[in-house]
Structures are given as C-alpha cells and as structure tokens.
Amino acid sequence: MQRYIEWILRYRFVVIALTLVVTIAAVIQAKNLNIIIDPNTMLPQSHPYVTTSNLVEKVFGSKYVVMVGVTPKEGDIYQPMILEKIQRMTAAFLQTPGVVKENLLSLSAKRAKNIAGTAEGLEVKPLMSKVPATAAQLTELREAVGKNPVYLNSIVSVDAKTTAILVEFKDGPGGFRAIMDKVEAVVGHERDSRVEINVGGIPSFLARIEIYSERIGFLFPIAILVLSLVLFEAFRTKQGLILPLVTAGLAVAWGVGVMGASGIPMDVFNSATPILILAVATGHAVQLLKRYYEDYFRLRETTDLSPKAANNQAVISSLLRVGPVMIAAGAVASLGFFSLVIFKISTVRTFGIFTGIGILAALILEMTFIPALRSILAPPSDVERKRGQKKRIWDKVTNAIANWVTGTSRRRVYGGVLLFVVITLIGMGRVTVDNSTKSFFSPELIFETDDKALNDRLGGTNTMYLLVEGASDDAIKDPKTLRAIGELQRFLEDQPYVGKTLSLADFIMRMNQAMHEDDPAYYKIPDSQELISQYLLLYSMSGEPGDFDSYVDYGYRSANLTVFLKTDSSAYIEKLVEKIHAFTALHFDKSVHIGIGGSVPQGAALNEVMVYGKILNILQITVVVFIISSLIFRSLVAGMLVLLPLLVAVLANFGLMGWSGIPLNISTSLISAMAVGIGADYAIYLIYRLREELMTGADEITAVRNVIGTAGQAILFVAISVSAGYGVLLLSFGYNIHKWLAILIAEAMIMSSLSALLLIPALILTFRPDFIFRRIAVKHNPLPVSVVVLALVFGLSMQPKNGWAAEPNLGQIMEKNFVVSKVADSVADATFTLISKAGQERVRKTFGATKLEENGIDNMRMTRFLSPPDVKGTVSLLIEHADKDDDIWIYLPALKKVRRLVSNNKKDSFVGTDFSYADVIGYKVGEWNYKLLKEESVEGQPCYVIEALPKSDAVKTSNGYSKRIGWLRKDNLVAIKMEYWDEAGQMLKISTFTDVQLVDKARGKWQAMRLEASNVQTGHRTVIKYDNFKANQQVKNEFFTTRYMEKE
User: What DSSP string runs through 963-1013?
Assistant: First the structure.
C-alpha cells in the first residue's frame, strides 16, 4: 500500500490530469441524460398480472389512457355548447400524433355507436355524427345514450352532468410529459368560465413524476450548500470545506457520465442518485481528511519535519491507515447497491448498478485524486489547527457517548436499545404494503383533485383487465361463456370502488334487446350460439371492422373484460382478486381460463415481488457485510459486531414506517439496502480505529474514549452529511417520494451511526472479543479494485446527395402511372388475408371484375366476397367519374339492400381491410402536387421516388392522406411501394406491390399479383393475392349494376 501511495504522490500531476480528462469525458456524456418514466421498467415482467397486462395490451390495446371530463357549470351535458366542445376536442385528438385513433372513445368518436333495431333488422350508426341543433335532436341523443348502457359511467355520468373523452396514447419519445402536453394543447382551448374540465388517468401522474423528479436539478445546489455548512462545521478550514466537495462533485460527474453513456434515462429512482453519490462521497472524504488532519498535527507536534514534509508524510500515513478500511467499507457500500440486481424490476436494478458505480467512482477518487491534490496544496496553518482544536458541541456529544459506554451507564445503553427494538417491532406490525401512484403526491394538488373529481362522477380512472380465454376459436360466442362474463360484471359492479365494467356481453345483450323492439326483458344473452353469430354478422354490415377489437380477438377465442376502478390501491386489489378467483371458479367452465391484468393489478404484482425481494435483499446484503467484515478482521465475531447496529437501523427503518404511516412501496423498498450498505462503513471504521488505538498501548477505556472522540466525530459527520444531503428533498413540496426518502434515509444514517457508537464499544468492553484484545496486527491487503475504462468512439458519416442529370416530367410520369394498370376489362379470383397486430389471421375469398368506361380513364370495379360466412355475398361496386365525385356502392346480404356511400367515405376502410376506397379507386392526378425526391432501387428495380401532396384540404380530407410517397419503376412506371401519412402528418401505412406481371402486352398494361398494406399505427396488415387474373375478357356492363350486386 505504501509503495502505491508514494507512486501516486510521485506522479500526482499525471493523476490529476487523468482525473480531469475522465471528468470532462463524463460531463460530455452527462448531457445525454433526461428524465423519462417507463412503467415497464418498474414492473416484474414475469409476474402473471404483468404478463396478462402485456397480452391484453398487445391484442386489445388500452396502453396509456387519459380521461378528459367536461362538466357544465349550469345544466347537463345535453346542450350544444358542451357537445361542440366534445366534438372539437375529439377531432383535435384524432389529429394529435401518438393517439391510437381507433381506440378513442367519446360521444362524437367513430367507435361510439348507437345500436338500434329497424324494420330491416339491426342498424348501427354513430352516436353523434354531428352536434344536435334542436331540442328534438338533443332528446334523441339522450335517449340513444340511455338505450346503450355501455356508455353510462364510461363516457357519460349517470346524472348526465359530466361527459368524458377516453384517449389512448402509444409509447413515444418525450415520456409522459409529452403526452400530457399534447392533452393540454387540446384541452386548453376549451377551458372557459362555463365549464369545468378535469384530466385524469395514470399518464397524468406519471408525467408529474417526471416533472417532480427534475427538481433534483434545483435541489442539488441546495444539497451542496447544506453539505458546505456541515463540512465547515467539521473542519473550520477552507480546504476542509472545498476538498470533500470537489471529490464528491467529481464522483457525481463520473456517475452521471456513465448513466448518460449507457443511454438509460433517469427515472423516479435514479433521479436522486446524484445527491446520494454527493452525500456518500462527501462522507468518505470527511473520514480521510479527518485522519489527515490528525496525522499532520501529530507530526508537527512530535517531529521536526517541515510543514511540506509533514504534509506529504501525513498524506501517506493517513491513507496507509485509513485506505484499506475505506476500500472495504466502499466495497460493502457499493455491494449493498449492486445487491439490488436481485429485484425483478428493471428500474430498481438500474438504480442499484449506477449508484454502486458512483460509489466506486468516489472510492477511486479518494484513493488517487485526493492524495495527489492534497500533496500539492499548502499544509494547514497553526491558526487552522487552533481553530479545529476548539471544543464544540460535537465534543460534548461524543464525550457523553464515551461516558455511557465506558462507565456504569453501559447497562442503560443495553436497556435503552432493547426498549427501542421492542418499540420498532411493534411499529413493524403496522407497516402497510401498498403501491398507489396517487399516494406519491399531496392530495390538494390540482391533478389530484382533477382525478378525484373524475372518479366521483364517472366509473373510474384506473383499470383492471380480466382476460377470458377459451379452449378453441368461437369459444367466446358460447352463450354459457357470455352469460358467465355478464354475471361476473354484475358481481364486480357490486364491489366497493368498482364504477363500471365493459365487455362483449354488453353489446350482445344490447343487440338482442334492439332486435326485440327494445323490450327490457331481452337485455340478456340469447340461448343460441347461431343467433349470436348472426347478430355479430349484422353488426359488421353497419359498424366498423374494429369496433369490437378492444373486447374480443379475431378468432373469438379470447375476450377482454375491462373494469374501471376508483382507486389504484394495490392493497385493495389483492382482496378483490381473491373474490374474483372464488367467483369464477363457481361460474365459468373449467375449460375457460381467467387472467388478471391492468394498471392496478400490476401494482399488486409489485407488492408481491417487493416483499419477497425486500426480505431476500436484506438477507443477501447481511451475508455480504458479514463475510467481508469477517475477512477484514479475521474474525466471525467481528462480522457479527458489524451487523448488530445495522440490524438495529433496519428495524428502526421499518418501525418508523409503521408508526408514521409511510407505506412500503416501490420507492421506499430500497432504503434498507442503502442503510446497511452505507451504515456498514461506520461499524467497520470504528472497529478498525479501536484496534489501531489499542495497538499503540493505550488502556481500553482510554482507547475507547479517544476513538469515539476522533473517529466517532468523523462517523457523526458522515451520517450528518448523508442525512443533510438527502434532507434537502424535504423541500420538494407536494412530492411524497422525495419526503419519504429524506426522512427514512436520515433516520437510517442517524440510527446506524448512533447504534455503532453505542453498541460496538459497549459490547467490546463487556465481552472482550479475542480479535480485539489479543492485539494481533492485521495485515491489510488492499482489496482489488478494478476500474472499468469505457472507450467511446464517435463516427460521422455523410450521405452524398444525388443530383439529377435531367429531371423527368413528373406530370407525364404520374399520368402514365395512373393508367398503367387500367386494362380494358379483367376478371380474377383473389384472397384477402387480414392479419391483426397479434398475428391472428382472417382469410376472405373473392371474385372480381373491372372494366374501363368509354373515356378510357375511369374504371368500374366489382368485388364479390365468397367466404368466410360473415362477409359471404358482400359486393362492392366502384364507378369512377372524372368530372364529379365517384360512386361507391355496397350490397349487404344480411339486409338484402344496396347502399350508396358518399364520396367523402373514400378514406374509410374497404370492407375491413387496410386498403381504403381511395386506394382501390386511385388518385386523380390533377388533385396532387408532385416532387421528385430521389432515384433508388427497390428489389433490384431502379425507381423514381415521388412525393405527392394534396392541393387542397378538401382533397386531403376526402382521401385521408396529407402526403404520399411512391416508388415507381422506371421501366413501366408501376408503383411497387407506397408510404402514406394521415391527416395529422403522421405516417399511417406502407404498401408494397410485388409479382408485377405484364397482363396486356399490346397496350403495355401491368398488374401486381400480390398487394400488401401495413398500418404502422395499429400493427394491422392486409395481403391481397390475385389468382387466375385475366385481362380483355369482354366483361359485360351488367356486372357493374346494382341489380347484379343483388344476385346470389
């Protein structure tokens, strides 16, 4: 060790320079840090509640749902002013990037349908396609909502005083603040004195966690100021003030630099890591500096060394004596945090790893930078020595402690500790294990009161999902299964804090009632599975293809029952889950499996994992501390002595939680590892110094008093440093996570230090262990410290811009592209394969015919669906018109009626596929502006890449696209790839056209035999494959009449 220290001093300028280089590199990387909350990193991914939640989100959606509630100050919601606000906000949310448009629900949303019976059978139409203008229309809307119970308490309160918009967002850059900023951008325009608008849901609270976690940027300088006061009190010298802060600052820079280089964002846990590293590094520096001052003043008083020589010798001797114990204590502290990797929660593991790295960085700096810098600084002056030797309150405190453990009061120490342990054990029995995101904040905050208002008025802003899985396709259509789902809903709605449930059963019961003239007696599940299938078929003829995607999967094998809750307490949900299991065991067939998920059950999953992880973590770090301590002192008794005050501190931690009402949750679950890891430092340092003092020949009482007076003060200063550093979190008003951390860590540090100062000397004097009193010098070999060097390589690449030798005539290109696939006529069999985002498929067989009209430009297209049963006999007829709107006709066999679709429906899905009517009809060349972007090859085919922008808003609205980019083959101008952007400017889908064949050689007509469209927003895909495609077949005009459509 001495040679190592001498080497550091010999090359001190190199050491300082290297330290600065590493620090600069770390600071550069630290700029990549930001605070983003990713709930997935907070969850135990293997837990059944989490796996079910992930499956539900994958198949049915409902990831991050924000509820916007609108309540008029006067009257109810059925007034034009309120409904206009709902319509405007709904339209604005549909244009908002990141919104899952197909899952948006409000009175004016596309998903909100009025299911009604008609003379033709079943009619499904929008609940509110436009804002009612008359009293009669308002009454009609009120009655429609009343007849469709699915909307009561979900988007309309029972008293009709509040209506809501449910907006689902996808994962995206910027975290939850970006989501809530988008929400506020829409909602802010509608706030006025006539209405109260409340916003709630889990994203609202997660956004606040991101915002409040950023307070670290404000609190960090305050922590430095507080630590400065502690350091000045400890040393009363400028160097004593500055050196520890410089070391701690460098350690923080290294720690956050590693975090920034890793690309992992800060979150609710590691956002406080800089303050933790600052406090721990400052505390360690205090220990080292305290010992330096002791040795320096001793050398000046007992030798003839010059100040400079005494300075260098003090640097060597202090590090030689304290260095090994600092390495051991630092290893224990870092291992305490590294032990958090046992948690099945990614963010907890990340916190443990990066904090452990930060402490190791502090240890490296203390063993290199501090001695190097200390050796070139001026030694302390006599004035500083006299100032530091003045008696202060800390001398009185440590003197009192020394009197207790060395005098007749020792038994009182044991009695007091025993009484304290009993009190903490009683408090432990009062600890509640509960994860509630809303409990992280003070209830008077505006977003808390908003959420409470929504929970009071509607079904709830928290969700639980019950995944009902059958053994085969169509299992959910079984009347027994649907009836059991309905009974489960009624059971749940009788439970406290359950405000609303939704499932496919609600829609089936409403269809049955509508088909029986709205007779309430028929609001039930029919007895026939065939009748249920017929209802679903009838609905699909009038509704949208994805209307039930949130409730049932493609194969009708799995269904999603959504439960709206008025609380997010995981402790409550655990009791509710027990009731659900008991109910489903009695009412569902054994072949049906019920899975549980959702935001609230995931909190319960955290409870289970944390309790198990907490116990395992305490046991693990206890074993680690015991082993390392025993090895350092070559004694198992020493290992137990180190553990004893730490266990008292852990008990005190749980006791305080129980007596104060602080819950055991994901944010407070880490304190014990921090308490044991950091607190072990005190016990190891104290025992080491006591052995060292006894080896000088001092009697045991004098040795204990000297150690408590010197090392004891250093321990108190370290504990106060950590406590003070975290204590600034108490200034984080309204944010309970910061307050809990400040209180519990301060308590843990104070109890660790006091129990070490009281118990360890008392027990040593009482039981006189051999490893102390045999006075066998312990040969301290420095623990191996491996420094991980991160090599960061930056590369810049420049993409050359292509230049055009001669830009092609885009007008001519697009005109040729428009007609290149328009044959005189054609017939073909085709297979439509619809593929959900979960990979499930529905296959549809069709027969189609096309024919050019007399102008040689406009096309007529007939498509007849042959299978499966739910679309069999459906016929679509498209007739294009160059001088007016195109005609779109649909024949629905269930209603035996042909319906004409207005031209602005061209953007709608074509019979449930990812191709729109506009895609099938084609885009009129004169309605778009074109730009040649570049030339590139696709699948070996040289292509023009051409951008098309609509010339007017009317064209954009009619077609549903704000931009299209096409890859047109140079040889025949056939589009082999297309990309589409929706009206909000977000990429919507990508289409590819392959197996392009020459179908009319004489006229140069080409046709792709395989077409695929992938919706990048929903994950849904459609593949169309043509078979037996034949051109120029003399197709008759009667194929393209409504009369022919009605033929079976």
Answer: EEEEEEETTT--EEEEEEE-TTS-EEEEEEEEEEEEEETTTTEEEEEEEEE
